[in-house]
Amino acid sequence: MTTILSTTDLTKTYYKGSIDIPVLRGVSLDVAEGEFVSVAGRSGSGKSTFLNLVGGLDTATGGRIVIHGAELSAMDRRELARHRRDTVGMVFQSFNLIQSRTALENVTLALAFGDHPRRDRRRRASEILTRVGLGDRLDHTPGELSGGEAQRVAIARALANAPDVLLADEPTGNLDSRTSDEIVSLLRRLRDDGDLTVIMVTHDEPMAASVSDRVLRLLDGRLVEETRAGEAP
Amino acid sequence: MRFGDLFQLSLENLWRTRLRSSLTTLGVVIGIGVLVSMVSFGTGIQKNVTEGFRESDLFTSMEVLPTEIDLEDVMSGNIEIPEGEIRPLGDEAVEAIRAIPGVEVAFPEVRFPVRIEFGEREARTHLRAIPSLMADYRPFTDLPHGRFFENDDEPSIILSQRFLRNVGIVVAEGLEGSGGDGGAAEGGEASAGEGEDEDELVAVPVDSILGREVEVVTSVLDASGLLQALTQGMSRATDMPLREETVTLTVIGIQPQLTGFGGSRFLGGVLVPTGTAEGIPRLGFTSIWEALGPSDDAGGYPSVYVRVKTMRDLETVREAVEEMGYGVVAIADQLEEFKRNFLIMDALLGAVGTVALIIASLGIINTMVTSILERTREIGIMKAIGGSEGDIRKIFFVEAATIGVLGGVFGLVLGWVVTRIANVFANHYLRPEGFAAVDFFFIPLWLIMGAIAFAVAVSLLAGVYPAVRAARVDPVQALRHD
Q1: Right CATH for A3-228 from 1.10.10.10, 3.40.50.1100, 3.20.20.10, 3.40.50.300
Q2: Pick from B12, B377, B388: which is nearest to A81 by CB?
Q3: Which residues of B lie inside 8 Å of A (Cβ-Cβ)?
């Protein structure tokens, strides 16, 4: 299996005045293409920061991130924007949909950033929304959707520009357990259907273990444990 | 991101906050409206004056005076009896001027007071002799009614509209609803006639005015009366040794209305061909000045009107005439100064509008910065799903530009409406004074383009800071933002 993501000694330190706050203290890992990896840990363990670094929303203080053969730390801001657009898709705990736009429009906005031809956008957006089970909710705004539905819209938006890696930051954090199960199953199904790699950050280890190929545990900015599917934790 | 998408997104964003957007745009609308109406007033006045000059051939004409004259004094209205050598302007001088290359027409000023009997009514006015040669020149090329003289000896007369009013007549078309004081004569009318009574104005069709005969009555010295006066002494002031002579002429035309700007010096009063005018008996002087002048040379004219072929001939002809020892007044001399003054006026008027626009641009900055604060999360989302800093910058830029374009276009409309209304008011007050309707405002193409371009430029400038600030939003912070 080819490695799609590789981090080496990744560090991130926030500076608040004269105080250094190290969040990641050297994280090295490899993720294979098509793998479903979960990063588990308590809040403050640095797992969201890790995802933001891989997603190109934030820049690392030290170490390397190589994704699909390209090194993120060497990218300028424009290349990072392209990385966010084409290589990764991000899903957040709070959905982060644009409230004034319908489900369809939230997805077509991502396609617009992706320079898709105008006339293809609606078709492609409704295709993806149908794939995540929202074929009948295209014209509803986030306010008219349930949490699970909103998160499906967010997933559809993340997939709009056909990324290699889906990065999900606590995607079930705002959902009840039944809806959470539906969402993680959807992520799993999407991975199974195509050549998508999924990296999910969560604090819910049992849930992570139930869907992931691998669960990594992060504590105080360091990887402390790794469990493969089928192994006992 | 494509421009169409940027534009659509901007419109959506503006629409979402439509109250705020429209208030901000209104600021630009008012700024541009003020700017357009101010500048269009400047250009309108300039256009009217320049066209008035051209129409009355001021750029190709000059006045020859019997002495050198200081133009500054003429412009300031400080006309004194010129000192220094006075060279009488006689018929020989007129002939000599006519012979200068580049001169098309030269004729002396012959103008004297008359009383004209028009049917039952009569009015005092002045009579001016105009050669039939002037048929080719404005304002005689476009008489509103009738025709100009065909030769210098025809027994014809051309009346002014003010004269007709003075005998209680208006030409039966337009001029309705003209109220106010018609007696405030402007534009060269010698005196208000006795027959003038605004309430009794009668509209009469042109056909019944043209072809009508009028009596031109002049006063001449009565030789027998003079003798009587000399021998018996003047017992009463009314015993002036004058008697009246009457000449009958046919009305063949009516002069155009005077406009407020550069109205022709030939208009007003009544016009008669030169030969015919010569045949009208009159006192040997046309004014007190002439009567009291040092020369009693009857052939000395107060001035000679000279028209040259082109503006370029003006200088050479002027030099030739000055060499002859005469004074020359040409308004063209003042053209450069006029232009400079207009430029200053335009700049001042434009400055007022610019200040309004600067205030409007502060409104844009304020609105956009507020918008960024409100949309921080949205900016973060757009960055997370692939929007580049350039995209974000452009979205805010296009929003600012859209405010600018809308503000510019509607500001132009506002400016136009304001100038139309102001024009109606201005003309409402001027028309009863005997002026033809004038457009005081002029919105040339460059002003239309310039106003919109200026609005967009100011809006873009106002959008720079917000756009840069929006692009710099940290997505991690923004997505944590509530």
Answers
A1: 3.40.50.300
A2: B388
A3: 1-2, 4-5, 9, 12, 16, 377-378, 380-391, 475-476, 479
Other CB atoms within 10 Å distance of the CB of residue B417: 12
Give Cα B303 distance to the centre of its chain: 25
Distance of CA B332 to the CA centre of its chain: 16
Residues of A in contact with B5 (CB under 8 A): 112, 118
Determine the Cα–Cα distance for residues B53 and B184; give it in Å rounded to an integer: 24
pLDDT at residue A101, as a whole number? 92
Q: What is the ipTM of this complex?
A: 0.92
Q: How far is A96 from chain B (nearest CA, A)?
A: 6
Domain layout of chain B by residue ranges: 3-53+338-480, 60-331
Find chain A residues with C-beta within 8 A of B378's C-beta. Answer: 98
Q: Which residues of chain A have pLDDT under 50?
A: none
Q: Cβ distance B85 to B326 under 8 Å?
A: no
Q: Which residue of B has its CA nearest to A98?
A: B378
Domain spans of chain A? 3-228
Q: What is the pLDDT of residues A32-44, one digit of tens each?
A: 999 999 999 988 8
* pLDDT above 70: residue B201: yes
- A227 sits in which H/E element: strand A222-228
All residues of chain B having their beta carbon less than 8 Å from the beta carbon of residue A81 are 383, 386-389, 391
Q: Is the pLDDT at B237 greater than 70, yes or no?
A: no
Would the pLDDT of B192 be above 50?
no
